[in-house]
Amino acid sequence: MVLLFNGVQIVDTITFKCIATKESDLNTAYWDHETEEMGIFAIADVSCMSNKDMSHELSCDLSCEQLRDDDIEDDVVCAIKLFNLYKKMTGDGFTYWPVYVEGYCRSETDYYI
């Protein structure tokens, strides 16, 4: 529901849910130490404030701990920011997430409704 309040279409909401399921198994505390992706949307550490270059365009102005806590509102805001940035760059905002690029969550997403 939070996604709808941030201007995301219902179809995109379903894709976001699929990505969160595939990337983190809906685990808000998810942290892949190898790829440094974290939180329910498996957002790269370059987007959180533990990164030294906070002027980076992928910065979400939140701490990495905030990506891994139970409050997903800031995670959603960050995911939408990254989605919009990648939409401008590639035409498809979901290409930020490797699981989407690999072909998951592009079709047959009825399971996530």
From TrEMBL:
What is this enzyme's EC?
A: 3.2.1.17
Instruction: Provide the reaction this enzyme catalyses.
Output: Hydrolysis of (1->4)-beta-linkages between N-acetylmuramic acid and N-acetyl-D-glucosamine residues in a peptidoglycan and between N-acetyl-D-glucosamine residues in chitodextrins
Source organism: Nicrophorus vespilloides (Boreal carrion beetle)
Classification via SUPFAM superfamilies: Lysozyme-like
Q: Which PROSITE patterns match?
A: GLYCOSYL_HYDROL_F22_1 (PS00128), GLYCOSYL_HYDROL_F22_2 (PS51348)
- Main enzyme class: hydrolase
What is a GO molecular function of this protein? Answer: lysozyme activity
Protein name, please? lysozyme
Family matches, as Pfam families? Lys
Record lineage? Eukaryota, Metazoa, Ecdysozoa, Arthropoda, Hexapoda
Establish whether keyword DNA damage is in the entry: no
Q: In the record, which residues are listed under signal peptide? A: none
User: What SMART domains does this protein map onto?
Assistant: LYZ1
- Domain Glycosyl hydrolases family 22 (GH22), by residue range, is 60-78
- Record carries keyword Membrane: no
Report any one BP term from Gene Ontology: killing of cells of another organism
Ordered alphabetically, the record's keywords are: Antimicrobial, Bacteriolytic enzyme, Disulfide bond, Glycosidase, Hydrolase
Q: Gene name, please? A: LOC108564564
